[in-house]
Amino acid sequence: MLDARVITALEEIVGLEQVTTQKADRICYSYDATQQSFLPDVVVHPANAQEISKVMLLANAEKVPVFPRGAGSGFTGGSLPTRGGIVLVTTRLDRILRIDGDNLVAEVEPGVVTEQFQQAAEKAGLFYPPDPASLKFSTLGGNVAECAGGPRCVKYGVTKDYILGLEVVTPQGDIIRTGGETMKGVVGYDLTKLMCGSEGTLGIITRIVIKLLPLPEAKKTMLVLFDSIDGAAQAVSEITRAKIIPTTLEFMDATTIDCVRKATGLDLPETAKAVLIIEVDGEQGMIERQAQRILEVVRPLGVVETRVADTAAESEEIWKVRRLVSPSLRKVNPDKFNEDICVPRSKVPEMIRRVEAIAEKYAIPIVNFGHAGDGNIHVNIMVDKKQPGIEEKAEAAIEEIFAATLELGGTMSGEHGVGITKAPYIPMELDPAAVAYMKAIKRTLDPNNVLNPGKIFLEDEKTFHRAS
Q1: I want to staple 81 with a disulfide (CB 3.0 to 4.6 A). Which of 67, 182, 375, 386 is the partner?
Q2: Where are the alpha helices (DSSP H) in 2-69?
Q3: CA distance 37 to 27
Q4: Are 251 and 274 in contact (CB under 8 A)?
Q5: Alpha-carbon distance 274 to 227, whole Å?
Q6: What is the CATH number of domain 218-327?
């Protein structure tokens, strides 16, 4: 537990009611979507950059670790307080400061929920494309810290492609601004891009300048079922070759289809071994032509059935198939390891076959779905952690999956980040010189190693404070 005078100093900075040391409250901030848990010593809720700056100055003086946290929806443990210390929650910074339709920019605080910002932009006739699956509760600050993606990134790109500038509190307590509000700007190093995806290890984001687009006039959704994963993968290539970049290209493999079919009773043909959900957006006449062309080019590739939405309700029915995937997985086994590998999209069938072989080797069900347009596969290793030795088997399977991913020219994480769960595997993907370069940046910006220590790069875990 922290010294009482540190707690008192925190109360003076953010206010007595915004600091808690009660165990029940601390437990609420001890875990994330990984379901791993580490108990912090104190939780603070600052209101602005100035208060966060003072917290970081205190943390450096007292050598106390600080763990920034938004909604805590991450899948790799990036916000977990693995060394006790201070959990610094940014959800009070939740204002949309402005939406500028003339310049197609917005300025927001990090605690704004992603979907709420998207809705506000759309009311102004504007569009913020990044759409992580957690958008109903994840915050924009967390999206930037993890460089979140989502289904629409095949056409529109990921979070970093929409971040023009940031206000950041540095590990040593300085408040800096990076980037700006212009589409061009090459003065100095690109600190904005450095912060995007840095997982809260290099600074705490307090304001975000976001690039917006005009809202597309219309969209059209299609569900295409194939008799093989190869046909679905070839369809992705053929669609691109036809000079069409869909908004989304989501896929589900045979195991996923079977899970959804058994859990929900949805009418999906037994002959369907892969599914693509394809959506196009833009001007109404254009998307009608694109949809027709897509159906033409995929027809020879083992199509079992196609469903085309003509109304918003029908589009919702198609997306229902995808949204039912995660709930249906629990019918396989109660626990899961959720990995987000990414391979060149032409390698998706080979990667699926490799995963199937690994699943057979370890006798563990593995369910695959994700973003076919950019080769981002969500690999779900389904287990019952009550079974003796099952977690060790799952970890061995994960290591083999990562090795296969890298062999095919991919990466171990497309959008979830590294955190603590993927830190042990960093040497598989990055060469020692690159890791040393990154660690040098961290040491320079955070010499006392107080900001989100132990994330991305594996360190001594003996100091972890697990919740009890």
Answers
A1: 67
A2: 4-14, 23-28, 49-62
A3: 8
A4: yes
A5: 6
A6: 3.30.70.2190
Question: Which ranges of 22-63 does DSSP label H, i.e. alpha helix?
Answer: 23-28, 49-62
Which among 66, 68, 54 is positioned nearest to 9, based on CA atoms? 54
Does an H or E element contain 336, and which?
Answer: strand 335-342
pLDDT of the residue at 458:
82
With vertex at residue 150, the alpha carbon angle to CA 94 and CA 206, rounded to the nearest 5 degrees, is: 25
Q: Could you report the average pLDDT of every consecutive run of 10 residues in the chain (468 residues)?
A: 94 98 96 93 98 98 98 95 97 98 98 98 98 94 97 96 98 98 94 98 98 97 96 93 95 92 84 96 96 97 96 92 86 91 93 95 95 94 94 96 98 96 96 96 97 88 37
Pick the CATH number of 4-91 from 3.40.50.10610, 3.30.43.10, 3.30.950.30, 3.30.365.10: 3.30.43.10
Half-sphere exposure of 189 (CA within 13 A, CB side): 5
User: Domain 332-418, what fold?
Assistant: Alpha-Beta Plaits (3.30.70)
How far the first Cα of the chain sits from its last, in Å, is 14
225 phi, psi to nearest 5 deg: -105, 135
**pTM listed for this prediction:** 0.93
Token digits of residue 258: 């079977």
Q: Report the alpha-carbon distance of residue 468 to residue 466 in Å, rounded.
A: 6
Q: What span, in angstroms and rounded, lies between the C-alpha atoms of 260 and 328? A: 6
Written out in words, the top-level CATH class of the domain with range 96-214 is: alpha beta
How many helices and strands in the chain, by DSSP H and E?
Answer: 16, 18
351, two tokens: 């990667």
Up-side HSE of residue 101: CA atoms within 13 Å toward CB? 9
